[in-house]
Structure prediction request, 294 residues.
Amino acid sequence: MQNSVLIINSFLHDKNKQGLLNIFNTSPQIKYKIGTLADIPHYDIIYSPSEVINSSLYPTKKFIFGPHFSVFPNPPQLHALQANKYKNSIYIQPSEWAAQTWKDMGAEQFIPIRTFAFPVNTNIFSPNEHMEYEKTDVFLYIKQRNPNEISQLKAFLALHNITTYKIFDYSKRYNERDYINTLQKAKYGIWLGRHESQGFALEEALSMNVPLLVWDVTSMNQEEGYNYKDVPATTIPYWDSRCGEYFHHLSELPEAFQTLQTKLKTPSIYNPRQYVLEQLSTEKCRESFMKMII
Prediction:
C-alpha cells in the first residue's frame, strides 16, 4: 500500500529537506508533493516543518510537525495543534536530547514528541577508497563558541607542534566542496561547536570516515552570541566510540588528545562511517519514517 505525503511548503532546513526527499525518492511506498493547505484533502499524511495547522479540522489525516516551530516549546502554537483531542498529530525533534528538552518543558501536554533523524547523504559524503596517499591533514571546525576556548585550543595545538591545519568557521559560510576535499585528506578533525539537535556537518565528516576530537558542550547557553536557557545539551547527539574522542572541560583535553593519537595508530579502532551507515543512512531513516507514520 502506498502512502501519500504532503510536505507543506514552509521553512525546512536545507539539509533536512534534502534528506527527506532522498527518503521519499527512493521509496516505492511513498508518493509525495510539496504543496499548500489547499492540497491537504488529497493526502493521507501532512508534514508541516514550521507552520501551525489546526489538525482538528482534518481528523482522518495524520500530521507531522517540526522541528522548526521554535527553539523551545511555544504553548500557544502547540495548543493550536489540538493533539490532545484528536490524537492525529506528532511533533518531531532530530535527536533524543532535543526531544527530551521539549518533554521536560511540558510540550507533551499539547502534542506527542517523537525522535526522527534526517539522513546524511552518504553518497556525496563518502571517502575515496582508492586514494594513493596517506591521510595526514588535520582540520579545525568552529561553530559559535567562546573566543577564549578557541584561543585555548589553538594554543594547545601549537604546544603539540600542530600549526598547519585548515579552519572551517560556520559563521563565515565555508564552501562545501572545499570541506569535502579537506575531509578526503584528513587524518582526523578537531571540533569546537555549539549544541546540535542533529549536527549535519559533524555527521558528514564522520560519513567520510574521519575520526573527530570534540570539545562537547553540556548546556545550550554555551553558544556564543545567544542567551539560551541553561538546559542540558550536546554537540554530538549521534555518536559512539567508533567516531573518535570527546571531552567537556579544558582540563580533559590532554588525555582525550593523547587517546586519539594512540588509537589512530591502529586504523581499525575508529570506523565512524560504519556508525553513520548504521544510524543515519537514507535506508535507516526511511525505516524510522515508515514506523512513525504507521
About this structure: Residues 3-116 form a domain with the Rossmann fold fold (CATH 3.40.50). The chain is about 30% helix and 20% strand. The chain has two domains: 3-116, 137-279. The first helix runs from residue 14 to 25.
